[in-house]
User: What shape does this take?
Amino acid sequence: MTGERRCEVAVVGAGMLGASAARHLADAGCDVVLVGQAEPTDRQTHGGVFGSHHDVARVSRIIDPDPVRAWLGYRSVSQFAEVAARTGIDPVNPVGHLWVDSPAGIDLLAEADVRYGLCCQRRGAAEAIESMGFLSLPDGCETLWEPPPAGSVDPRAHVASETAAAVAAGATHVVALVDSVLAGAVGPVSVSTDVGVIAADRVLLATGAFSGYGKSPAAGLDLEYALHTQLLVHLDAAEVDRLAGMPSIIGKFPDPVDDFYLTPPVRDHLVGHPPGSGSRHILKVGAPQDNHVRATAAELVAWFRTDGDPVVAVRLEQILEGLLPGLRGIGRRTTSCVTTYTPSGFPFIDWVDDGSHRVACAIGANGFAAKCAPALGELAAGLFLGRNWPTEADRELFLARFRD
Ligand SMILES: Cc1cc2nc3c(=O)[nH]c(=O)nc-3n(C[C@H](O)[C@H](O)[C@H](O)COP(=O)(O)OP(=O)(O)OC[C@H]3O[C@@H](n4cnc5c(N)ncnc54)[C@H](O)[C@@H]3O)c2cc1C
Assistant: This one.
């Protein structure tokens, strides 16, 4: 793209929410430009912004203690499949999902199981271990297994699939870094990028952790960040065979320091592997990060350039040893990532301008946007299409708030 491009809606941020929103808008006949920066080739030297979708897998499930999150997950399942059928890019790894918790914690998931007819299986720890020989769980916990298509979702593939569907429906995809989004009193909103200017009637900001980058109407939103460290274990073919049938797993324990999430072996299409290993499979473990911080875009960039926190990495090794005793990895590494949090626990999907309804945001995905991205993108697109907000999702939860 050179010079100026006119469009009805510019979606800034070609990540999990932006790509889904662009697809919904293009399907509805909007002239859409989806603009976002490419994945860093070298994280240490990368300039500009990072995305939270540059990874091999995210846990995907409908069961959730929160009914709105469960509905968003349910609404997304069919959309993942529909878009995959259109593009031939299927992000879903339908291996099932196992939630490990106290009996009281498992009780909280029952409503989603019943409401969406999921036919989940509730089992004690011993019974679950019996059916999955590779697994070890502490006595006293219970498990709920959600059948496929729960499992994991490949966030890169999700973005690729949604972007391809949007483009096939008429959207333009521009790979560029956006420096500023300026809405004057009248006229188009000016989206300034490193390859030219987009003059858009309206703009959706779906910039993930980087709403504070450059000049943007989203600057000052009441957001906090969790700085994550993940452990990635490379596996050979024999170990992948031994772990056959492994679901994605979330573990919740009396001491939250023991909590974890795990995605089972998936084929990694992009990242480096131990030389000569012949394997491209990665199993991944991480832990929820409750220590949320305020951070500038520059501070987030500095974190993304690291390999994460070595202290957390040791803890993740211990969790893995306890959960999958005897796991034989042929290589290990850690990565950093960021999730963005709002006070309500739900993304801000709302107008963020002076009342003229020309600039909206879909920001602050609170760590669950991978499994819910198609539905969250649909809510954001709905603002532009004048659709009624669905009754299943309390509108108040999604209203944008700026810091005082
Ligand atoms: C370690 C970790 C584990 C997670 N696990 C799960 C899980 O198991 N299940 C689940 O459902 N979710 C999970 N998540 C959450 C999920 O990955 C995020 O919620 C999701 O990626 C957020 O989507 P987003 O579109 O808001 O942001 P992103 O996916 O980060 O997309 C934002 C995009 O905007 C682009 N961008 C930003 N600013 C600019 C700019 N100025 N110019 C151009 N481009 C710009 C970025 O490059 C990026 O591509 C996890 C997240 C992390 C970090």
Summary: Residues 271-277 have pLDDT under 50 and may be disordered. Residues 13-18, 36-37, 49, 51-53, 58-59, 155, 177-178, 206-210, 213-214, 228, 230, 261, 286, 337-339, 365, 367-371 surround flavin-adenine dinucleotide (CB under 6 Å). The first helix runs from residue 16 to 27. Residues 4-54+156-220+346-398 form a domain with the FAD/NAD(P)-binding domain fold (CATH 3.50.50.60).
